Amino acid sequence: MFEDFQFSTILVATIRSAPILLFAAFAGVFAERSGIIDLALEGKMLASAFVAAACTYAFQNPYLGVAAGILVSCCIVLLQGYVAINQKGNQLVFGIAINIAMSGLTFVLAQYFFQLGGRSPDLGAARFAVFNFPFADWWSTIPALNWLLGKFLGGHTILVYLAFALIPFLHWLMNHSRFGLRLRAVGENPHAADAAGINVAQTRYLALLCGGVLCSLSGAYLAIVQSGFFLRDMSAGNGFLALTAMVFGNWRPIQTALGCLMFGFFAALQIQMEGVAFPIVGQIPGSLIQMLPFVVTVIVLAGVMAKSVAPKALGVPFVKSR
């Protein structure tokens, strides 16, 4: 019924789904502000999701699962850096290759280890615990406070709070720190940065490693927190939505976060709309509802791409002047 369509539920779902996009989009910001096109977000998310789920199930410890996901994502990133920085390879082709390879490899490994059709077992109690505000006996009796402290601000895992805490931190890091200044210089004019004594290759490797850690947190959140298991291609295009949010945010952390929240809102709206009978139009077919986030993506790209200004050296291999 239409009465079941609650805006408050959509807001809570937006908060809970946003970290997937936030971590991945921030990873893209690191890579692309240094001049490296990062189309491999989807593949790194899948790889870290599988490894995080498998290690969490094996050791019954989500923190070990996250650490293992970080390790495998950083290994992919080092390979990505070797191809893009050392070998001056095509960054677009390599990104697509990683996505295709991880889509198949994670399924094969999951089937080999667990024999569940490419799915991992349920993680059950091994998942992250949620944080609850104190004095719940008092504020839970007040509906507004119960929603605010129990669902909107509270009741989330540590990765949710980390994702939102990164927004102001990365804004400061990119705009007010020495590392951020060097990162932006390398992405805008690597030859001038090199003339100023900045090691371009090293800076790009550091940016990719930072992005690898963040992207692994996105995959770990997807497997350990949101789903509680690994499933084939469970990233479901979120890596590309994160790239869209990054373009929407003009490669800046705060604006990128707003783009992630917008896509998270429409994803939550899509889930809330399924099975709901609206006045006049009635119940909307599920296939049309599932298109909603991607329709929004196309609209955003059509309206924002012309106004977005990418780093000038994005995708251009750096050849040191002699």
Automatic annotation (TrEMBL):
Keyword Transmembrane carried by entry: yes
Sequence intervals crossing the membrane: 6-31, 66-85, 92-114, 153-174, 205-224, 230-248, 260-281, 287-306
Keyword Cell inner membrane found: no
GO cellular component: plasma membrane
Pfam family, one: BPD_transp_2
Keywords in alphabetical order: Cell membrane, Membrane, Transmembrane, Transmembrane helix
Primary localization class, coarse: membrane
Gene Ontology terms, MF aspect: transmembrane transporter activity
Location of this chain's protein in the cell: Cell membrane
Membrane disposition: Multi-pass membrane protein
PANTHER family per UniProt: GUANOSINE ABC TRANSPORTER PERMEASE PROTEIN NUPQ (PTHR43370:SF1), SUGAR ABC TRANSPORTER INTEGRAL MEMBRANE PROTEIN-RELATED (PTHR43370)
Record's protein name: ABC transporter permease
